[in-house]
Design goal:
This protein is an alpha+beta fold and 266 residues long. Helices cover 17% and strands 44% of the residues. It contains four helices and 18 strands. It has helices at residues 29-36, 74-86, 153-161, 201-214; strands at residues 2-10, 13-19, 46-51, 58-64, 69-70, 93-98, 101-108, 114-118, 125-127, 131-135, 139-144, 172-180, 183-190, 195-197, 221-226, 229-237, 244-252, 254-262. A hairpin with a 2-residue loop joins strand 1 and strand 2 (13-19).
Length: 266
Amino acid sequence: MLVSFVKYEGAGNDFILIDDREELFSADARLIAALCDRHFGIGADGLMTLRRSVEMDCSMRYYNADGSPGEMCGNGARCFALFAEHLGIGGETKYFAATDGMHTARIRRTKNRTVELGMINVSEMRSGGGWWFLNTGVPHYVEFTEELDGVDVKGLGRMIRNDTARFPQGTNVNFAEIAGEGEIRMRTYERGVENETLACGTGATAAAIITNYALQHETTKYRITVPGGELHVRFSHEPGTQTYTDIRLTGRARRVFKGVFETDNF
C-alpha cells in the first residue's frame, strides 16, 4: 500500500506525520520502527497519525521510534498542530486529543513560526538523592549538573531509564544546568528512542517546573537551551503546593518535506 507522509521538526526533534482520517494506516510496531530507522527508513524520533475526533478538531496518536506506543510528546504535539494547520483543520486555537488527555495549541504567525502548546497540569513529584521525578505527559527524571557538556548522557541515561526498581515503567532522563534566572541548559535521553535526542518538549517542561519548585521559586517563565535550539516554558504555580497549571510550551516548528512510501518495502 502506498502511504503519503510529511516530515516535520521542532527544535531538532523530527517526526513522520500521516493523515489517517480514513483510518487506513496499520500502526504496526515493526513497520513504524523501520520507518523511523535513520539508515534504512525515513528517519525520525517518532511517528504520529492524525485522525478524526467527534468532540475535538482531531486526535493524535504518537509512536516512539522503536515502534512502541507513546503517551505524549511535547515537540511532536507542536509539530502535529502545525500539520493540522497545513491540512486546514481547526481554527486559530487547535483542540486535539492525545493519550494523556486534551490539548490546545496556537500557531504564532511570526517570521520564525512558533507553536504554543498547552500541557497537562502537574500536581505531584518526588525526589531522591539529587534527582527529581514527575509526569508531564510522560515520566521524566531531572538531575541538576554544573558541567552539562561533560555528562555521559547516553551511558547514564540508559542506566537510569532502565532502573525499574525506582521507575517501574521506565523514564525519560534529563540533565539540567542552571544558566541564570529563568535560563536552563538541558540534554535528554529519551525512552522509546533509546538515545540522546536534540530536544524534548515534555523534558523541558519538567526541567522548568523542577527548577521553579526547588531553586527559583518566583520565576514562572523559562528559556531552555537544548542541542537542537531553544524552547520556552511558562506556567502558573500555587505557592506551597506541587500544583502547576496553565503550562505552555513554545518553540519553532517547520515542515521539512513530504513523500510517499510503499509498506511492502518495509
